[in-house]
Every structure is written in structure tokens, then in C-alpha cells.
Batch of 2 targets.
Target 1
Amino acid sequence: MEATVPILGMTLAGFEAAARGRGMVPPDVRAMYRRFHRTGEVPPGGFPSWVDDGRRPVHAVHVDGATAKFTMALHDGLETESVVIPMRHRDGSVTRTLCVSSQVGCAMGCRFCETAQMGLMRSLSAAEIVAQLHAARFAVEDPVAGATGFEIKNIVFMGMGEPMDNLDAVVGAIRTMTDRNAYGIAPVHVTVSTVGRTEGIRRYGDLLREPGFHRLNLAVSLNAPNDRIRSEIMPINRAEPIALLMAALLEFPKRPNAAICMEYVLIPGVNDAPEHCDEVCALLRPLRCSLNVIPYNPRRGSPWPAPEEERVREFVDRAIANGQFCKRRGTKGRSAMAACGQLGNAAIRNRRWVGVGAPEPAKEIVEIRVADA
Ligand code: SF4
């Protein structure tokens, strides 16, 4: 049987090359490729038999007033999870960020993370990663307007999985997502987040050295001011301690004025003391970075509660007083287990499927309001 070509995982150049050997002429192939990625339409009569369109059933959406979470069934019965986060700006406009998964489950075992409870089931292909964007655009209802076909401005690789452990597929997906003939997402609006896999950080840096990709962003889950605390909550730190991570980050090819985003999940009684704040600011001083403080979202069976708002504010204020550029990140989606570190939970198993060709409206969406930015 003829091997199929996954259109969702290919740039136009790659798709044209595959088509050429099958006797198709470039204008036809280009039109087919652009229409599918830009509008979700398949050619009248369907794709040629050598094309795998990669669309999968998308499950109804979980909503908590600001965030839409959806799952997509894979060919082997596993599922991806993704989150659409709308953001209203001061001028009243709304943009949307899509958080994608790069693996089903995760092997990293971070103690504060819901996904870690699943373990790693498998890595996703580039097409399966891009399929999440295609589904968000054409199969999931707009959390604001109540229709499909909304634009996604930002892509963050912060869903299930460690992107650096599946970097070839992640890079392939980024190439398709940013292809002007496909989704045309600006590289400056793409962020890959890692637990701190130093070899992956170096290889991702190589992509930034390619023409057109120098504005891609890097985020790192730091979450602790020193090796003792970090090794307790993030097993990866025992293999790749903070000194190795910092060395890789200092070499990372940032564009002028760009900052690496250092994520710090604030966990009561673990890493939230004033001296922890001082220590992490001193650690980050040599690095041009933004410290993003994220109030902990308790996973199921969590030994820790969410932090009190006042403690979060104190931590952020102290970091700023220390001269560290610091932001507090909101926790949209907490009640629907769609917030940071909460993907991969059992609560989403109670579901209804939405068709892939002409999707029905996802009736579980009862109300979506847009949270203030
Ligand atoms: S926080 Fe990220 S790297 Fe750590 S277990 Fe969860 S998904 Fe994996």
C-alpha cells in the first residue's frame, strides 16, 4: 500500500516535493495545501489517496469562564489535550493563545504537576501537534463568539509533555505553524517551555540561528532557588542541576532585548519564603530574563494548597525590589483543570465527541467570558 503523507506535519515545500513524485502540478498542490491549513476545507471529492489529512475527532470543551480545553482522539486511542486562552486587551480586542501538548503524558515526574501522574505514554508526531492548532481553528467553538474559525495568535508548548524530549517533532510542527502558506504564526509568538533539558535547549538554539526563526521564545520551568528544593520537586534536577541549566541559558542565542521567561510556580511552604525570593533573584542576575510567578494550581491529591494572594503579591514585589523583572501570571482555567500543570486529568473523560468534517457546536460550552488581561 502506498505510504501516506501527513499534510498537517509538512511545510508547503515538503508537501510539494512529495506531490511532485506523484505527478501533481505545483499550482494545484499549493492551492490544496493553503486552503486546508488556512480555511480547514478539503478539496471537493476529498484529498488524493496519498494524503493523510490528520484530522481527528475533537472532544467537547471544558470551560470555566475564560479558558476552553479540548481533547483530540489519536489513531491509537490516546488523546492530546490543548487549551485555548482568550485575552482581552485594553482596546477591547481579543487575542487567543493556544497551549499545545508535545507528548501524551510526561516522563519528567514534577511533583506539582497533574500530567506527571500519567507517566509518559508516547511522543506526538509533528502532524499530531499541528492537528491541535488545526482543531483549535476549525473544530472548536470560539470561546468568545460561539463559532468555529477563530484566529490563534500565540502558540505555547506548555501542555502535556517535555518538548525537548520530542524536539524533532516540535521543530517540524513549528515549521508548519509558522509557514506563511499554512497558519503564518509569527515566530515571535511561539514559545517552547522546558523543564530544563540542556541538550534540547542547545538544539532549539540552533533553530533560532536559522533565517526567520531568531525571534522564537524560550521558557524554562525553574520553580526553585537552589538545587536542594528543585531536586525535591523536579527529579530532572538531579541529572541536570541548576549550574548546568544556567550555563545552557547563558549561551542561548537571544535576540537583542529579548528575555528568557523563567517560570516559578509558587508553592506554599516549599519555595515561597522571602529568602527564596532573594536567592532566586541572585541566581538569575547574570541572565536577561523575566521571572514569571505562577500561583500553584493544586493537582488532584496535592499535598500543597494554592498560595494566598497576599503571599504571591509579596513575592512578586520583593523580586521587583531586588531589581528582577518579574510578572505574576494569572491562573485561568483552574476550575476546569486546564491551568498550568493541570492537563492529563481524569475529569475530562466524561465527554461527547465533535465531528471532524463539519463539527457540531460543542454543547458543553455554556458560557465563556473573557478575563481581563
Ligand atoms: S511540569 Fe511539564 S515537564 Fe514537569 S511533569 Fe508536568 S508536563 Fe512534564
Note: The pocket of iron/sulfur cluster is lined by residues 106, 108-110, 113, 115-116, 160-162, 195, 221, 341 (CB under 6 Å).
Target 2
Amino acid sequence: MPTPLPKTKLNETQLRQFRDEGYVILGRVLSDEQLEGLRGEEARFRANAQVGKDQKNQTLFFSQVGPYSQIVRQVGLEGAHLDALEQLIGPNLMLWYTQFVTKMPDGESGKSEFPWHQDNGYISIEPANNVTVWIALDDVDTRNGCVWVDPKSHLQGLLPHKKKSADSWFLEIKVAGDGVPAVLKAGEAVAFTGLTLHRSKLNHTDRPRRAFFFEYCDPASVAVSLVDHSGDPASAPRSPVIRRAGTWLARGQLPLPPNNKFEA
Ligand SMILES: O=C(O)CCC(=O)C(=O)O
């Protein structure tokens, strides 16, 4: 009989670290069964993406996979990390984004790096109450491309994210220092704010580095799509986060619309 995981409730020190530094290590959030389940799903999505594509040296992204995966929904809506998120965001929790990130062995190409960025630099959540829960599906460290966070960077607010060239998604953000590597065992997670600068370096090993992340926010938030726009939140398209495809209410309830004008 599988043992249920204890819920991850954050203590005062962890809450202070999240508030002051913009990130906190949550520890183990997946049961063995959930870890195997998510690894199986990563393999299924990777096989499906393989057709005619060279995946060598690449970082592979499988995004907004909730509708396609029962285990993603189960972990995202009932996982051990939800109590911690309630402490960080509040009683109403919207799961609004999901993504596998598989960093293939880099060899010498240097292509598998993901440079410094804020998650809100792509789709900005307003107000910026959103939290990313980045879960290692393999043991991760500095050799295979763990995620690094820049402590206190969230205090700078939303920074401009600029594409290096028209055909490159690489972004240029100047960061002083190296940041802190989130060294995690498979099934463990780090949580950070949508404004926390983070990155991952190359995978120097000969095995893929698999990870999965969820993003949550308060359901009353608005999503502003900065991708393929000038990056100026004032002119970018915006919509209530509850109207986006692939979003679920994980806990609590939605705020009532004015005059009970419920939309179909
Ligand atoms: O998993 C990684 O290597 C980083 C991915 C990431 O930060 C992102 O997709 O926003």
C-alpha cells in the first residue's frame, strides 16, 4: 500500500525566505507513484514530439499539458505542495500553467542553456501573485542543468525581456553574480515568484534532465501576454486568467462577477 505524502506546510523561516528572497525549497512533493507517473508522461510527450525532429542538444518544452494528462491534473490539483501554495497565494488557487522541460545532453553545443528570465516576462500575471513550483523528475545539480535562482531579484518588479534576435528566443538580462543553484533530488521542488529571476545552464551529462513545473495564481488575476509583443504590458493583450485554456481551480472559489453576470 503506497504511503501518502505529508503535506508541505511552510514554517516561519521558509515563509520569510520566500517573501524576502523570492524563492523557497519545498522538499519532496511527489510520491514514488506520482514521480513514475510524470516520468511516464514525459516519455509519452517526448515520443509524440519526436516525429522528424532532431532533439539532440535541445531543451524540449511540452506546455499546457493538463487536458492531455490525468496524472498532471491529479498532482496539480491535489498534490502535497498545495498547502504551501495556499500559504503563499491565499485560499483561492488557480492552476493556470503546466510545462515539462527536458534538457537533452548538451555535448559541446552550448544550446541547452536557458538564460536568466522572470516567468512574468513571457506572460505577466497582474497583480504578480503567481508562484511557480519547479519539480525535479531526475536528481538535479550543476552538472545536469539544475535551475538557479537570483535571490531578492523579485523585488525589482517586472524587468524588460528583450529577444537577442528575431529568430532566437534567448533573452538578454544582466544579472550580477551567479545566483543560487537549486540542487534537488527527484520528486523535490523549489517554489519561486513570477518575478524571481531564474535560469538553467548546460546539461553536461549523457542523460536527459527531466523537470516539470506548475504555475498557480489567485483566480482574480489577469494574464498579459508579452510573448511576440513589444514587451510593453500597457499595449499587450490581456484576459482574465480564468478564461485561458488549460486552467483549473485547484482550491477555493472564484470571486463573484458584478451583478451575478456569469459567463457561459
Ligand atoms: O527547467 C529549466 O531548465 C528552466 C525552465 C524555465 O525556467 C522556464 O521554462 O521558464
Note: The helical segments are 12-21, 32-49, 70-78, 82-89.
